[in-house]
Amino acid sequence: DTGVSQDPRHKITKRGQNVTFRCDPISEHNRLYWYRQTLGQGPEFLTYFQNEAQLEKSRLLSDRFSAERPKGSFSTLEIQRTEQGDSAMYLCASSQGRGNEQFFGPGTRLTVL
Amino acid sequence: AQSVAQPEDQVNVAEGNPLTVKCTYSVSGNPYLFWYVQYPNRGLQFLLKYITGDNLVKGSYGFEAEFNKSQTSFHLKKPSALVSDSALYFCAVRDIWDSGAGSYQLTFGKGTKLSVIP
Asked: What is the Cα–Cα distance from A36 to A74, expressed in whole angstroms?
């Protein structure tokens, strides 16, 4: 499978715990994005990397959220001290080129109890 | 700032009839426009895009969309609906400035649930 992959697919955690998600983009894509989707809403942009550089961050990305893409390949999204409001589907996407579409992974569904 | 509106939460259409899912947008510069489809428990799948050129763009599974700059719209269409087209459809926009620079983030609408009735 050469699409975008995300791990884990589901995560259940208790409030206050830290969680980390991983995204592996399509191999030749230099741009990687994180979005968050809640029930009944469209995806909302969180952050974007070009190679290893984090170039855009949404105001939605509070200081409890951090994302990395250390070698310009896979990326991790960490949420510290999770809150119930963090419960959502976290989507990763990748793209190559200026006008090209973003390809999305299956998402990681986070449930904070 | 960029935004997208999908005025219909749900669209119902009989199988074999034409379908339209509406989308309007707002950008500061020029729009790159996209349609995605989401099936239950599956990720977003790309359908089609408008970057420049012909206002009518064709995409996957027989879908097409018409870019209308004066009405700031990008409605999704299909001449003959299939039951398998039933899904959640999202319109998305990127804002591209006259310099050619712009944000890479996509702004999505809230989605429109399409139900095709046999």
From this structure: 18
Residue B112 has pLDDT above 80, yes or no: yes
* Amino acid letter, residue A53: A
Angle CA(A24)–CA(B33)–CA(B56) in degrees, nearest 5? 125
Q: Distance (Å, rounded) from C-alpha B20 to C-alpha B18?
A: 7
pLDDT of B101 over the 80 cut: no
Are the beta carbons of A82 and A17 closer than 8 angstroms? yes
Q: Is B18 helix (H, G, I), strand (E, B) or coil?
A: coil
Name the residue among B111, B95, B74 with its Cα closest to residue B1.
Answer: B95
Instruction: Residue A43: list chain B partners with CB under 8 A.
Output: 44, 90, 106, 108
Examine the pLDDT at A1 and tell me if it is beyond 70: no
Q: Which of A66, A89, A93 is nearest to A77 (CA)?
A: A66
| A residues 69-98 lying closer than 8 A (beta carbon) to B | 91, 93, 95
